[in-house]
Amino acid sequence: MPSNHFSRREFLKQNSLTGLGAVLTPSLLGKTVEQNSIQSHSSVSFSIAEPPALLGGKPVRSQGWPTWPLWKPETDEKQLLEIIRSGVWSRAGVVTEFEAKWAETVGAKRSLAVVNGTNAIMTALTQLDIGGGDEVLVPPYTFIGTVAPVIATGAMPIFVDVDPETFQIDPAKIEAKITFRTKAIIPVHILGLPANMPQILAIAKKHKLVVIEDACQAHLAEINHQKVGTFGDAGCFSFQNSKNLAIGEAGAIVSNNDAFMDRCFSYHNYGNPYGMVSGVIGAGTLIQGNKLRLTEYQAAIGLAQLKRLDAQTSLRNENAAYLKAKIQTIPGIIPYKLYENVTRAAFHLFPFRYQKEAFKGLSRDIFLKALSAEGIPCLKGYATLNNMPYLNDALQSKNFQKMYPKSMLDFKSYVERNQCPQNDRLCNEEAVWLTQNMLLGTRTDMEDIANAIEKIYTHADKLLSLK
To answer: Which of 31, 183, 227, 243 is catalytic?
Structure first.
């Protein structure tokens, strides 16, 4: 999870950007996307000679960013209010409608809505027969929601280092981590930037591995005009409040495999009969299951948000490309790189790498404070997920002790086997994030970001005295 003074979950913990707390002051909040498209938020004339705001100068920006999530009562509330008044709140026709529209949107045959993206991954793992004694390859640069389901099934997460240019799992490092226990790969389209699926799929086919795409941050992202989430055996999405399609808490699984999707449906409804998971009348619950059903009113919120998703995704891509062009000429600033076959990204986050040497040795922490003071909210992103205490907790659990040999359960040895130096550098030194709502602004807003970074670069020597 993000390692700076607020987490990604806290980013929207009160259904608005107020979750940014100390980083976003009240004056930096409150503009809607519609307002933002009409007027620029820039409220001061930019001067590179102005001292950094962190040292008392005038900030580049003093007004707000587009709020998130976006809600339009005049268009969004009719169906939601009808559902609330009907009293039909548990899963029924509106959830089915949302599933059908999500499947159509991403180009999959089937979709199943569940309570969150984490449980979407959990459901996919269990119904693809991943469990105790198995190993699942995962990238270390991701949210805990990718790895927690692997552990919950009893499988062992094995970390594969990243390509720092793209922030994605590095296909060139996958095969070295495959053992006789390896049963699956979970590529994560982290930050809304697609992973290198053609190479990953070729490796998976060679070694007969299951592929579950974690597309929780990558709504409508594409590789060769095919939506991510539809390449592997299953694709998993999240609709948590910060996501590009926000419901609050919700998720979905997509696949073209009817038998698999029937098992997932049965699993999410206690394991009761559904489709091909059937038995004689009165047979009762047939498979091990859980209760992960979505509500009707959540689905209504999703349907309202879905109407805007394509246009918002296009705007994020346009602004990301413009911002990238503006900042990539600043020494020490290295924006994200997309693989050549990526035809569209989602930009749940806009990432770049910060190299302090070009800023006269200014630490990333001071850079982030200085950028925030200029009116540009920012995060340092994830901490190293491959050496946290939760892993030792799993290794020492009763179930893991019974399922794995002692040689696999020593935490020190496990961490040694799962070292990821490129990820360490991203997490501890280089990564900087801007949130997706900022990309729903204007080109002038993107110029504010670039100007603020350039201002810090110009005055880096003056900021060195800060701790």
So the answer is: 243
